[in-house]
Amino acid sequence: MKKYFLLGLVLLSACQQKDIQKPADSKALALSINQSDKASFASGDVSVKVLNIEDSRCPMNANCIHLGWAKVSFSLTAGGEEVKGERYFGADAQLPKNDTEIKAGGRLFEVTVQEVTPYPCTGCPNQPASQAVLNVKEK
User: Fold this and answer.
1) How many independent structural domains does the chain possess?
2) CB-based burial of residue 89 (10 Å sphere; 0-12 exposed, 13-18 middle, 19+ buried)?
3) What superkingdom heads the lineage (predicted)?
4) Which of 2, 65, 82, 111 has a CA 20 to 30 Å removed from the CA of 104?
């Protein structure tokens, strides 16, 4: 059986904090979060906020020289200490290397981007706000 259990989080409405239930034996969660939203573990001692999502991926209906990437800027707060970080997502060969570990409140976490939606589209009306799926695991 896997040591870690991922917990899905339903979409958060803009600028709201939402507590997420975390099983006592788990140190990991996956959350889908909009820009400027904040989510926290049910214990309240760890929270993640997406500060900005920059998406330079090649739109699905365009011809591009490179594939591009999305950059997710976030803050992670643990034990009262807030640490900012950024992670890149995409298939571009020039994609900056992610250092997935971040230390806050004397604890070590691994933060990765699983997905950024919606995928860019040139001339597509009414695209929803950008959203990132982050995996956060305490090591």
Assistant:
1) 1
2) buried
3) Bacteria
4) 2
